[in-house]
Design brief:
7 strands, 2 domains, Hypothetical protein af1432, mainly alpha, three-stranded antiparallel β-sheet, globular, two-stranded antiparallel sheet
Length: 321
């Protein structure tokens, strides 16, 4: 039996594929305070439908993987995603849930350990998501519907990546598949710079003081430098990472760009980024409805914070989902 002092990662049960061998140990939480871990399945064991049904009947939705097995799990997820994307026997709804849940752990790991190798591994996962968005309209629509509404930087990144790429695909008819792949790191990793912002600032419950706000406003440049060092950022993606907090009236950051100084990709991400942040539960405010969030963005658009033409197209796009 393991206690809380060991590091374990929560994994959605749906990620495990039936009749496949798991290359990692996985545990269940137990004990009077639910703070102890009991080994349920050893690495090398086959995960069967009977085991899945047993876990579900006992109310288990989350399993736990020890840190020592995280590399094996990440490799399993990469293989899993590729097979999920290509498996035509999986329903559209199930495929979208599997892809989304499989991605969450990788993005969580990335924001906890933003090393070059983790960035490169996450890029492979993003490629699978882009494959779906470019070629599978139905699964993309389900992905948009199931985006989580409890805010975390990693789920926010996935949500913004999915929604931004799908929206860009709908309005930029002349953009090639290759160009969409060039956008991937920008949309999905627009907030990667927050991985090196001190947690006491990132998780602050209340308004930022001047010094904290100055530090927070450095995350676009920090993110750009991280992705540049890893060699995974194109010119188009650079604009997204650096410009997703710019506003068309010049009130944004880091450079206070105005109007057409902001790329169309930066403008798209700024709207989607704001929309997702408002429609997810935060520690300081509950999630707004899509309608309420759109209303607030529209009010800010009247103050020329956002591009009016792109916003109108976003409303049309989202209302059709």
């Amino acid at each position: 039996m393991k206690t809380e002092k060991n590091i374990f990662f929560p994994i959605d049960l749906s990620v495990l594929r039936i009749d496949k061998v798991n290359p990692f140990n996985f545990y269940l939480k137990t004990g009077p305070s639910n703070n102890e871990y009991v080994l349920y399945s050893k690495k090398g064991s086959r995960f069967t439908e009977e085991l899945r049904l047993e876990l579900i009947s006992n109310g288990v939705k989350i399993i736990y993987i020890p840190d020592a097995d995280h590399v094996a799990y990440l490799e399993y997820v990469e293989w899993n995603l590729q097979n999920i994307v290509n498996d035509k026997s999986i329903s559209t709804e199930e495929k979208s849930k599997l892809v989304y849940n499989s991605s969450k752990h990788l993005f969580t790991k990335l924001f906890h350990e933003p090393r070059i190798e983790t960035i490169l591994r996450t890029k492979k996962v993003i490629n699978h998501l882009v494959d779906i968005i470019v070629s599978d309209q139905k699964t993309t629509e389900y992905l948009i519907r199931i985006t989580e509404h409890d805010y975390a930087t990693y789920t926010h990144s996935i949500n913004v990546g999915i929604l931004s790429l799908a929206f860009a695909k709908s309005i930029l008819k002349n953009v090639s598949k290759k160009e969409f792949y060039n956008l991937r790191s920008g949309f999905f990793l627009h907030d990667i710079g927050k991985a090196v912002i001190p947690l006491d600032i990132l998780n602050k419950k209340g308004p930022f003081g001047f010094n904290d706000w100055m530090i927070m406003k450095t995350h676009p440049q920090k993110g750009y430098k991280m992705l540049k060092k890893a060699g995974v950022i194109s010119e188009e993606a650079s604009a997204i990472v650096l410009q997703h907090h710019e506003r068309t009236d010049g009130s944004g950051y880091p450079k206070g760009l105005k109007g057409n100084e902001i790329s169309i990709f930066g403008k798209i991400c700024s709207i989607v980024d704001s929309f997702d942040a408002m429609t997810t539960n935060r520690y300081y405010q509950p999630a707004l409805s899509s309608f309420e969030a759109m209303k607030i963005i529209k009010e800010k658009m009247q103050d020329k914070k956002f591009d009016s033409d792109i916003f109108k197209q976003f409303v049309t796009f989202f209302s059709n989902k």
